[in-house]
Amino acid sequence: MKDFTPPPPTIPRVPGHYEDWLMKPFVEKSDAKLKQASRLMSVDALRGFDMFLIIGGGAIFNGFANAVGGPFLEALRPQFAHVRWAGLHFWDLIWPLFMFIVGVSIPLSIERRRAMGAAKRTLYLHALRRAGILFVLGMMLQGGLLEWDLAKLRPCFSVLHGIAAGYLIAVAVVMELRPKMQGIVIAVFLLLYWALLELVPVPGLGAGVLTREGNLAIWVDRMMLGRFHAGPNTWFLSYLGFASSVLLGALAGRLLMSSGAEKTKVLALTGAGVACVALGLLWSLGFPIIKLLWTSSFVLVSGGFGFLMLALFYWIIDVQGYRRWAFCFTVIGMNSLAAYVATSLFNFKLIGNIFVGKLLPRIPPWAGFVEASAAAAVVWLLLYWMYRTKTFVKL
Q1: Phi/psi at 210 (5° precision)
Q2: What would the DSSP string read from start to end of 148-161?
Q3: Residue 307 contacts residue 277 (beta carbons within 8 Å)
Q4: Total count of domains within the chain
Q5: Does 246 map to a domain?
Q6: If we measure between CA atoms, which residue out of 351, 338, 344 comes closest to residue 387?
Q7: In a domain, 365, yes or no
Q8: E-strand spans in the chain?
Q9: The model's pTM
Q10: Whole domain around residue 151: which residue ranges?
Q11: What contacts 359, CB < 8 A, 6 or more positions away?
Q12: What digits encode the pLDDT tens for the residues 37-74?
């Protein structure tokens, strides 16, 4: 028998409301007037699954692998670490998956606000405010802003910077163009980025150089940022790739908004995912998959992964109705910004060790696993309390 665990009845039910972690720049209580609208739990759960990996899932896996050992887990271990440059591990898909999910929410959020009477100018100002706040948060968490030392400031050094840039460009494209034209824009962005990196010569290096030490994208960053530059991630030219990752998610969101049958949507998401992965792998034969450059082939492969994960979660949770298993991820997904900021600012291992610290010396093989699990449990319980009190951090 299918299980069903509905969320608390006073949580807002607005079409596309699963982008609410990017709604207003303060903590806001749920609006009971909106409770009659619907919400796709699968998107909350997928966002929560992605954020769980970021805030503790990787450490839990490594602790488990250390304790259990064996060739299978050892073979999986590299997948929970980034590749140094060219190539792709599972861990390299975490950030682009989050950007994809941000994109999924854009068309639904825009349509909801338009239905509420928001003018285009208001929507643009709203998007600018969100992007600006994300950019500042990125400087606080990873850019050295809280060091209060100008010599240590790195304004372009955070994943939140990439999300902010990709989101802002994607909002403009979605608001101005129909879905078919959005697909064309993605193709233009990816081809233009490929042409720039492959054909434009870099002073002292030449054209088509894609090394960690030198390439056109990092050369542009150095020219733009000067002493505030910090690699090896690239930014300004990579905006084309960031925007494409978010726009792929926006196309998926538009598909979920369509009036087609649920099974048809699942098949369409799956087909899009397979096509993107295949095209990205084919392109990678001449234009390598490089996450730190956010190359066009990387955008397609990671975007295909996003389509496939969304299809899987949507089919299991919203189509088949199996929801109870995903509740733990939903709690995280509905406060993902709070989870990311909190775990970036505070060391939750210290709190977890209050409960398990005395146990760790007694279980040497399992110490890492228990410590990581305790820290993740503390974070989840905090988020669960916020969920139960209907308190959600929004921009």
Answers
A1: -130, 50
A2: T-GGG--SS--HHH
A3: no
A4: 1
A5: yes
A6: 338
A7: yes
A8: 26-29, 391-394
A9: 0.89
A10: 17-394
A11: 370
A12: 346 899 999 999 999 999 999 999 999 999 999 999 99
